[in-house]
Design goal:
Layout: H1 10-24, H2 30-53, H3 56-63, H4 66-86, H5 88-91, H6 97-108, H7 114-122, H8 127-152, H9 164-184, H10 186-195, H11 197-221, H12 224-227, H13 230-257, H14 262-272, H15 277-287, H16 293-340
Helix pairs in contact: 1-11, 2-9, 2-10, 2-11, 3-8, 4-6, 4-8, 4-13, 4-14, 6-16, 7-8, 7-14, 7-16, 8-9, 8-14, 9-15, 11-15, 11-16, 13-14, 13-16, 15-16
Length: 341
């Protein structure tokens, strides 16, 4: 039986189920303390495996394309925060202050790695450059995101209240150190990870589900659903759609005006318009006060699903158009050969 096109993917369904479970059966007390330790270990393991998986050869192959990477990084860490701040008069009436803080946090996050590369490949873009750009964005985000959060989010009730350097220190310890350890051990375990990608996928998705459950449990214990009206959730859908549409339009027009090839344009569009759920959820756990994390990651979860659906449709459309063009060109070659005879 074919899967309905409008049905979200299994991971999205698991995210929704996790939020419902946390809303009905939130963890609290000493159990919450133990659960927090388990979550921290899972997140560290996640970044360790990502470090071991990342191919240095692929990064070196694409690293020379500095103009493309500059455009992607500017879109990720400059365009998005500026849009989030500039659209405040439009966005604020649609969502609560806590959700708007989550929107601003979303705007500071790095690009996603796996789906950016996958969509670039489907659309016949520059895959080596996508690997490099998305990976560099993810790594630089460990330092850039907390610094941007301290600038664009002034509500100290939503943030952890510490200095950005303290936050960066926590992120380095919890995320970057395991990542570097994975890179150092890649010669020993890299091939095993390549053969067992399902392990990384399990840890990747499992750690996110753990963080989401813990975050929403804490938020529910603090009265999250009493503070967010249904109209604000509808407004959040509009906010996410507007942000994604603007990011796609700007990256599309900019890459074209700068004279990039079609393959490079595709890479810029997908890498420059995406935001990472895998990096964002663990970062939110480190940066924000525990009771605020649930509301902060809610915009990210929604944006993640919207970007997947929209970018999947674009990738398939562009990939099919290129494939039809290649087919037509191949069909014309024999005809041209006959004409020359």
């Amino acid at each position: 039986m074919a899967r309905p096109k409008l049905l979200p993917d299994n991971f999205t369904l698991c995210l929704v189920g996790t939020v419902i479970l946390a809303s009905l059966l939130p963890v609290h007390g000493q159990a919450a303390v133990g659960f927090n330790w388990v979550t921290n270990i899972a997140v560290g393991l996640l970044f360790f495996l990502h470090g071991a998986k990342l191919s240095r050869e692929a990064i070196i192959a694409g690293a020379t394309h500095w103009r493309l990477h500059a455009v992607v990084l500017l879109s990720t860490f400059a365009l998005f925060p500026l849009l989030g701040l500039a659209l405040k008069p439009l966005l604020s009436p649609l969502v609560t202050p806590a959700l708007y803080a989550g929107v601003l946090f979303l705007c500071t996050l790095p690009s996603t790695v796996q789906s950016s590369i996958a969509f670039t490949s489907i659309a016949k873009g520059n895959v080596p450059a996508a690997v490099c750009s998305a990976s560099a964005s993810s790594l630089l985000g460990i330092f850039i995101t907390p610094a941007l959060v301290s600038v664009v989010i002034t509500n100290q009730a939503a943030s952890g209240g510490g200095s950005p350097w303290h936050t960066i220190g926590n992120i380095v310890l919890q995320l970057l150190v395991p990542f570097i350890a994975g890179q150092l051990l890649r010669p020993l375990i890299g091939k095993w990870i390549e053969r067992n990608r399902s392990v990384l996928k399990f840890v990747d998705q499992g750690s996110i589900l753990l963080v989401v459950y813990g975050a929403f449990s804490e938020a529910v214990n603090e009265g999250l659903w009493h503070q967010i009206p249904l109209s604000a959730l509808g407004g959040l859908v509009v906010v996410s759609a507007v942000l994604l549409a603007l990011a796609l339009a700007v990256t599309m027009l900019t890459s074209k005006r700068l004279g990039f090839s079609r393959a490079d344009q595709i890479t810029i569009i997908f890498c420059g318009s995406k935001k990472s759920l895998a990096a964002g959820v663990p970062m939110a756990k480190v940066i924000f006060a525990s009771h605020a994390v649930g509301a902060v990651v809610l915009p990210l979860m929604l944006f993640h699903q919207i970007q997947l659906m929209v970018c999947a449709a674009l990738a398939q459309r562009w990939g099919a158009r290129d494939l039809s063009g290649e087919t037509a060109a191949a069909a014309q070659q024999p005809a041209a050969a006959v004409a020359r005879r």
